[in-house]
TrEMBL record:
Protein name in the entry: Glycogen debranching enzyme
Highest rank taxon of the organism: Bacteria
Residue ranges constituting the Mannosylglycerate hydrolase MGH1-like glycoside hydrolase domain according to the UniProt record: 30-409
GO biological process, one term: protein N-linked glycosylation
Length: 420
């Protein structure tokens, strides 16, 4: 498909999934508003429909909690309870109490660059600061300057092997799946989705957090799943860099944002980088054990401009190795291709995701690797141009998998087309 036809296709997907004040990730599988999906969508809409880009994030931030957290799903009250599980009845409210990676400050900066709308920028700035403050003060479960996630869903890489060891320590109660029926495996192929055992654990962890009123006190002592995720923390540092630029634009002090970004990068290098694998790994709290699996979230810190150059070089090397295949015929996989349990179709355990590759593309450009960046961009555009805007792609055949007409794939395609 030519680039012009691809732009038309991507815009059509975003139009199809627009509800009037936000974009659903996919009409079939995800009929509500997801937090980091909206940020990626807004980055694409900034080119195609900038007013809609602002509205996308405004609707999300209108659901921000008083404590500053931006919920991972905002439920659309017009959508029947049965259309998504776990829906509002499970979470006991109009939103979930979980969060997702804070890509929103980066998205706001991108929309501002294209609209120069200072009034809307000023509306967002305190809200984005409150989002960061929640993460910094309420979610530093280990007290080491890194944010902990309390559920695999918070990482956005739901069933990544990063969480296997931590999940294996928790019981998988099959009774939970008799009480609550999964909907995802009625809409998508079960072989592409998390297993029942994992799903039972997801429900148990979410239910325990909900039953404690979504309080974050003594997470390390009381909660069954507490993990430091390298891509979540990298995106949080990237958010502070974007916030510094936003603050400067508004004539406000910015140094504290840059200082916090620097502190997050140092803590990540100290606690999450493994010189033996040359990449970052998730880490359990309070045990401090690093997950053995090599997953794409361990490469995402390449987005950080402040990363020491030898670490950036080591990430590029890991990405280029046969484990992830950067520079090969297809974009980078979500998991180590050479691992015994690499699964080409199951969600975050092998397939190729456009948002991860879009972040790596930015990282390659930021660390002065223009040739592999250009190649990766072409590979992404070819993949989407051949298969359509799928949720994820088969790492051998490039076939589209998961939901068709998936919003962030369309949005980030638009951004790649606009930024040659
Ligand atoms: C997937 O996660 C949701 C739960 O949040 C699900 O499986 O139902 C993940 O890929 C996540 O990163 C994404 O935000 C969400 C919607 O696209 O789907």
């Amino acid at each position: 498909m030519g680039r012009t036809a691809l732009r038309t296709l991507a815009e059509r997907v975003l139009d199809l999934n627009w509800t009037g004040d936000h974009t659903v990730p996919s009409r079939s599988l995800y009929p509500h508003q997801w937090s980091w999906d909206s940020a990626f969508v807004a980055i694409g809409l900034a080119h195609a429909a900038p007013d809609r880009a602002w509205r996308e994030l405004e609707s999300l931030f209108r659901a921000q909690w008083a404590d500053g957290r931006v919920p991972h799903i905002v439920f659309n009250p017009a959508v029947p309870e049965g259309d998504y599980f776990p829906g509002p009845a499970f979470w006991d409210g109009p939103t979930t109490g979980l969060v997702q990676p804070p890509v929103h400050a980066v998205a706001v900066r991108e929309i501002f660059r294209r609209t120069a709308d200072r009034e809307r920028l000023a509306w967002f700035y305190p809200r984005l600061c409150a989002q960061q403050a929640y993460l910094t003060t309420r979610r530093d479960a280990a007290g080491d300057g890194l944010v902990s996630i309390v559920h695999p869903w918070e990482s956005g890489l739901d069933n990544s092997p990063s969480w296997d060891e931590a999940l294996a320590r928790l019981p998988a109660d099959p009774e939970l799946l008799r009480v609550h029926r999964r909907r995802d495996i009625r809409v998508a192929a079960p072989a592409h989705r998390p297993t029942d055992a994992d799903y039972a654990r997801y429900l148990a962890i979410a239910g325990a957090y909900r039953d404690r009123g979504y309080h974050d006190d003594d997470l390390a002592g009381r909660h069954g799943f507490v993990m430091e995720c390298p891509s979540f923390n990298a995106l949080r540092a990237a958010a502070d860099i974007a916030l510094a630029e936003i603050a400067e634009e508004l004539g406000l002090p910015a140094a504290h944002h840059r200082e916090r970004a620097r502190a997050i990068v140092s803590a990540m290098v100290e606690h999450l980088f493994d010189p033996r694998t040359g990449m970052f790994h998730a880490r359990a709290v309070p045990s401090g054990e690093r997950a053995a699996a090599r997953c794409v979230n361990g490469l995402v810190p390449l987005v950080l401009p402040g990363l020491p150059e030898e670490i950036a070089a080591s990430l590029v090397e890991a990405a280029t190795s046969p484990r992830f295949g950067l520079g090969g015929a297809l974009p980078v996989t979500s998991y180590d291709r050479t691992a015994a349990d690499f699964d080409p179709v199951r969600y975050w355990r092998g397939p190729i995701w456009i948002n991860m590759n879009w972040l790596l593309h930015r990282g390659l450009l930021g660390h002065n690797h223009p040739a592999p960046a250009a190649l990766l961009r072409d590979r992404m555009l070819d993949l989407v141009g051949t298969g359509g805007c799928y949720e994820y792609y088969h790492p051998v055949t490039g076939a589209g998998l998961g939901a068709a007409e998936f919003s962030w794939t369309a949005a980030l395609t638009l951004d790649l087309l606009e930024n040659p």
